[in-house]
Sequence to fold (300 residues):
Amino acid sequence: MSALRERYGTENVIASDIRMPQAGDGPFEFVDVTQQRQIDVAVRRHGVDAIYHLAAILSAVAEEKPHVAWDVNMGGLYRTLEVARASGCAVFVPSSIGAFGPSTPRESTPQDTVQRPTTMYGVTKAAGELLCDYYHARFGVDTRGVRFPGLVSHVALPGGGTTDYAVEIFYEAIKHGRYTCYLGPDTRLDMMYMPDALKAAIDVMEADPGRLVHRNAFNVTAMNFTPAEVAEAIRRHLPDFRIEYRIDPVRQRIADSWPHSISDAAAREEWDWSPDYDLARTTEEMLASLRRKLSGEEEA
Ligand code: SER
Fold:
């Protein structure tokens, strides 16, 4: 949100959520994606010309509540696309590495490949990619999107994903000097630091449509690592940091069904995608930012 406001002006970006924001943050609309009328009213009231549709239930929670995940992820997307069709706005939709499954090639996963996900999250993401393509081909809605890997941020706390460990580990490293990881030490997944994710979302929406061969679901990645490797990167700054493993079979099974590394060649070719943050730089920034944030909280 703040990245969009920085680029387009605070008054030109309407935040929305099912939770009220802090006062003074700029224009806000309460929108529940399970209520099409609420999406429609917000879009019309502000003359919105592009929707960043980010509301979704992530992979681990979706396995606990598959029917809720279907309604929020699939129904929310369908309603958003319907509003976009009626009002002529563009739509950014994030897909995920979760749209792949165990029969997908696991190394350097190509842009166009086998997609047989085995999670409800993945089913909604793969179907969502198709629905976005359909709305573009059939109704001319300017739908665009990327497949995000695990996102690492010191601002947004993770909420029920399989890749959450890659955020929690930094908090725990600063707070307690140790972390118990629910994925095994060698579980390799693609990841991205939030500033790169914001850049990807903005760049794909601003991309010259004449260059786009794909529209939705561009593979994007910045790095891939295992819990053992991120622990090692943290130890370069905090030599006493310790990691233990207590595997959660549900999340491990989900992670084991996803690629180890995806190829973002199509995004690089069609809209010049190029990430700025590798593991070393992400680690440095996460630790420094969290140190500031957490010491501020203690003082407050
Ligand atoms: N970060 C997401 C999850 O773990 C994947 O897109 O569910």
